[in-house]
């Protein structure tokens, strides 16, 4: 297969191309790349399930194992790009700051808004006030926020293991086959199902004490990843780089727990994990993700 079988999907619109030969080349290549990627990430999922099932202290150790296996999408991306000889010549790993400031601003502002919205929604659902909880009042709260932002750099490094798979390969290849909307929906479902080991063994986001465990949790996770995936793919497309998506994802994962602990009582959060998961994650994902999805779809039509 030629090294030029793949191109940056920002510059290609297969649905409007008149060259049928190009379409015949791009689609099978994209399908092959997706197939290799899926085999790798779900093999790692099976390994994660096997490892967690053999542990006595499942929740504590499963949490550590989950963060190790977060890098499986990155591995899947590298394997797929090497096997198909695509490489990384599309420059998706470069920051590309010039002319793309808006993408980086959105990568910070949107997840912060989602975090604040989630904390407010949780407070309303649990009938509690939204006040600063750390002892020491405002001064301690400011210190907590600084530590939270410092944590973003560490978390962004970890979430790069995901984003270098989802945004640097899967979504773009799905877009070649299914268009923008199809890539958001199917990509979000794959991303959500991939979380199964953490949802089942660690009670990720929704806990374990809810009706329909774990199927309901997987469905809710897929809805969250569909809409959040649209927002992440928007900043990826705006910049032509996966770096803003890594930052976005890092802020989301840092802010999600950080703002909840800042504004809500820890015991209250632990006792209502399912409600917290819906109000703190699902609702903000839909509210933030829907307009991003609309903008992403419009951007796709203009390409």
- What separation lies between the terminal Cα atoms? 26 Å
**What fraction of the residues are assigned to beta strands by DSSP?**
under 5%
Helix-and-strand structural type: mainly alpha
Percent helix, as a range, is over 70%
Residue-averaged pLDDT, rounded?
A: 84
Which stretches are poorly predicted, pLDDT < 50 over at least 5 residues? 1-19
What value does the Rg take, in angstroms?
20 Å
Number of domains: 1
> What is the general shape?
globular
Query: Could you give the order of the helices and strands?
Result: HHHHHHHHHH
Main β sheet profile? none
Q: Strand tally, please?
A: 0
H/I helix tally: 10
Task: Note down, in words, how this protein is organized.
The chain has 303 residues and is mainly alpha-helical. It has one domain (9-302). Helix content is 76%, strand content 0%. The chain contains ten helices and no strands. Helix 5 (137-194) crosses helix 10 (273-302). Residues 1-19 have low confidence and may be disordered.
Summarize this, please?
The chain is mostly helical and 303 residues long.
Topology:
Elements: H1 20-53, H2 58-69, H3 72-83, H4 101-125, H5 137-194, H6 196-202, H7 215-239, H8 243-263, H9 266-271, H10 273-302
